[in-house]
Amino acid sequence: MASDLRLVEAVKATLGEEMARDESVVLYGEDVGVAGGVFRATDGLLDEFPNRVYDSPLGESGIVGAGVGLAAAGMRPVAEIQFQSFLYQGFAQLQQHASRLRSRSRGGFSCPITIRTPYGGGIHALEHHSESFESGFAHVPGLKVVIPSSPAEGKGLLAASIRDPDPVVFMEPTRLYRSLRESVPDDDHVIPLGEATVAEEGADVTVVAWGSMLQRTLSAVDDVDADVEVVNPRTIYPLDTDTITESVKKTGRCVVVHEAPETAGFGAEIVSRITETAFYHLEAPPERVTGYDVPVPMFAREDAYLPDEKRIAAGIRRAVET
Amino acid sequence: MPRTTVAEFSVESLEILAPDGSVDEDLEPSLSEETLFDIYRTMRRARRLDERAVALQRRGELGTYAPGTGQEAAQVGSAAALAEDDWVVPAFREQAALLTRGASMGSILAYAMGLEEGAETSAEDRALPPAIPVGSQALHAVGIGWAQAIRDEDAAAIAYFGDGATSTGDVYEALNSAGAYGAHTVFLCQNNQYAISTPRENQTRAGTLAQKAVAAGIDGIQVDGNDALAVYEATQRALDQAREGNPVLVEALTYRRSMHTTSDDPRKYREEEEEVDWDRKDPIARFEAYLRGRGILTDERVEELAAEIEAELEDAVADARETAAEADPADMFEYAYAETPPWLERQAAASRGGGDADGE
């Protein structure tokens, strides 16, 4: 059985199912209780699980830090950070404690916390509501970084993240919350972390894209005179290098698309790995289509900042025509 | 509209044992002779451990070490008040509190030798590893205390931090959210008068640190931190309140008699007269006088104890050296994740010299 759901509905359904499945799962964050979250991703869960959904006092360091304690005491905390840009306030707790509790206690403790956080541009939000810091989180050993690109992935990856024994930053693309509807399995649906998927098969060029950029890439492909293979990593860290490598070995060409700035973006890591694992199969220099190296502009200029179908198509052409 | 007073506050201070060891009998807690002796014993163990650790550091066997000398009553008095299931969330100077809770001197020395083996605690130990980033750990005690509230359990968590930490946002968030969540948490602030070189009066204009609880809507109390009985009593009451979902901040007034760490030289920023003045208020001397007065301690018992501690220290140093000798560098890969990701496995193989970084 399956239901037609939007991403935000898939997230909510999964949270409810995971709470029903495991009584150590608790939900908390700013406005997640009575209001059901600013995107309504937790709407109704407080009524369903009265003692397991909490409105937090404001303060992201406090939210992440309390989660470390909850996890140490045997709970499975699922925290919402209202917008990813505010996770910077909790970054110290992520970096100094959540990510390394396991290693510094030599496995005596683990920190199975899931930080859900809406991210990315394209919804005309205020300043500090549109960033994509996946490469920053991926640069913290001990963390996992997961980004769904569809409602069904939202369910499968969130379930896997909550069940994972290590801390996960689960980044939900705001642009996809309500813009896309698809069939989502009703029953237990888990997508293992660390496994990429080939979203579209092709022979001429590999495009790696995630989050809302995946949808744009899939529609940009229609404007390109080439047989494009699109790889969706789903998990940013740990990255499924093998699937990307195999694809690039087949196509000999590669483009990485992301909305974060180019310099030290996760595209740099992917391109670097490809040069290590598939260098002699490359027929053209790898291309990157990304946000620019500027602070994300306010929304009046965000369309000029975010990679669109035109820029993505141009990047693919560069790779194919070289 | 008139101006009215909508909030006022006061802060209580508790002292039971005077610096000369005389006791306020009305306030004296009824502790068994065994408990009293244990408190004394652990304070002595902690003091000798500090001395030995500093000596080992000076000859290059330990890395940086933060002595707790002078703060033994604040730590042992508070940790002794904990129930078996209660949790300790230490900063990095809590050797005395950890010894009270059963940690071994060997593990404390191993930590100072730069080995994670010395921080190898688990939920069974009811203690988190030491926390270096100042103030950050207070939030973990909130999470642990909140978990007890959610599960309707009796246990509580105690967070240790110092005067400097009360200036951090994390400590404010901790006090505030503990109140909002009804967490079973006690915050034990050891006001040892210095954050490295910065004296308490430069840290904040607040007249007491205990009053930082007021803004968070939780109870705060000041206690003579060099008086083990007062610290025990205040912590015991705070724990009782915390178990009911009412977190408490206890400010223990004490003095860091030694250096901040072995890399520090207090002569740069404080006068000897001040140190001498605090020597007179030493927590161990005072507690010893009290126990002698009650007939719990004799010269013979003190000598016996000193010999026991020396033997314990010898074993601990030997244990720590053995841990260091056996430490496998490859362990760093073992504990990064529950399951080592493939790319990390590749690095681990390369580090062993067995593989290379080429996926071809």
Automatic annotation (TrEMBL), chain A:
Listed name of the protein: Pyruvate dehydrogenase
A Pfam family assignment: Transket_pyr
GO molecular function, one term: oxidoreductase activity
Superkingdom of the organism of origin: Archaea
Biological process terms in GO annotation: organic acid metabolic process; sulfur compound biosynthetic process
Cofactor(s), names only, from the UniProt record: thiamine diphosphate
The keyword Glycoprotein belongs to this UniProt entry's keyword annotation: no
Record keywords: Oxidoreductase, Pyruvate, Thiamine pyrophosphate
InterPro entries cross-referenced by the UniProt entry: THDP-binding, Transketo_C/PFOR_II, Transketolase-like_Pyr-bd, Transketolase_C
Transketolase-like pyrimidine-binding domain boundaries: 5-179
Organism: Halogeometricum pallidum JCM 14848
Automatic annotation (TrEMBL), chain B:
Gene3D superfamilies found in the cross-reference section: 3.40.50.970
Coiled coil: 299-326
UniProt keyword terms in alphabetical order: Coiled coil, Oxidoreductase, Pyruvate
GO biological process, one term: branched-chain amino acid catabolic process
InterPro entries the record matches: Alpha-ketoacid_DH_E1_comp (IPR050771), DH_E1 (IPR001017), PdhA/BkdA (IPR017596), THDP-binding (IPR029061)
Domain Dehydrogenase E1 component stretches: 40-323
Transmembrane regions listed in the UniProt entry: none
GO molecular function terms noted in the UniProt entry: oxidoreductase activity, acting on the aldehyde or oxo group of donors, disulfide as acceptor
Record's protein name: Pyruvate dehydrogenase E1 component subunit alpha
Taxonomic source organism: Halogeometricum pallidum JCM 14848
Higher taxonomy: Archaea, Methanobacteriati, Methanobacteriota, Stenosarchaea group, Halobacteria
